[in-house]
Amino acid sequence: MRRFLSGALPFYALAGLATCMYLVLYRTNLFDLNAIVQGATGSSWFLVFMFVCVLLESVFPYFGYFPGTALILMSVALNPKPADTSVFIVAWLAIIAGAILSYGQARFFRPLLQRVASKAALHRCETLLDAYGRYARVALFVHPNACAMYFTALGLLGRSLTRELAYLSVGAAAAVGILFVVVTRLVSSVGTTDDGELQVLLAAALVAIGTLVGLYAALRPGQARS
């Protein structure tokens, strides 16, 4: 069970955050995201707006679950015309920049971590990263928050950034590409409206991925022992 939870809980946590944001954004009167995104897509500052929103979502842990991905989804759903290659590239760059910033701030605070955490705890973390690090890269293909958490862990443990940049580039492109493909298909079938269904779909996908990762972690033979 511990192995299952070690693999599944990060994705379950992201799904919980996505659900909370769904409740806040779509079941309260605090924001009218439809109006915000409709106004942004018609602005000459739209690409800057998109970059900043996705960047905030991609930096861990200060912004928690900022709805940058939700805004990508809505920009496609509400007005497919502006969702062209330029939006794809801007979102891709924002995820990469956010992951690198997450890594950098983790390296900055690493001396503090070494003072407050025991050597045994740090050793356990390194053992887990060695055992599951290859599979943790799956997060790079899923969501900017998961990507940021992975690079935060790398920074806290003092691991190399350069050899991970290729995985980051491919993972960020895949994540944004999947969002565009899925949402474009949905828009073609249900029309250009957004009442939160896309956010619920994202949460459900994170739960499914987390369950699969947890099962793999629990059933994979030859587990590394801490």
Structure description:
37% of the residues are buried. Helix content is 75%, strand content 0%. It is globular. It is built from nine helices and no strands. The chain is mainly alpha-helical and 226 residues long. The model has no long low-confidence stretch (mean pLDDT 76).
Q: SSE layout and pairings?
A:
Elements: H1 2-26, H2 33-41, H3 46-57, H4 68-78, H5 85-116, H6 119-136, H7 144-156, H8 165-190, H9 197-219
Helix pairs in contact: 1-9, 2-4, 3-4, 3-5, 4-8, 5-7, 5-8
Task: Please describe the structure with a list of short key phrases separated by commas or semicolons.
226 residues; mainly alpha; globular
Mean pLDDT equals 76
* Outline type: globular
Note the gap between the termini: 16 Å
The total of helices stands at 9
Q: Cα-atom Rg, whole angstroms?
A: 18 Å
**Which consecutive residue ranges, at least 5 long each, have pLDDT under 50?**
none
Would you kindly provide a brief summary of this structure?
The chain is mainly α.
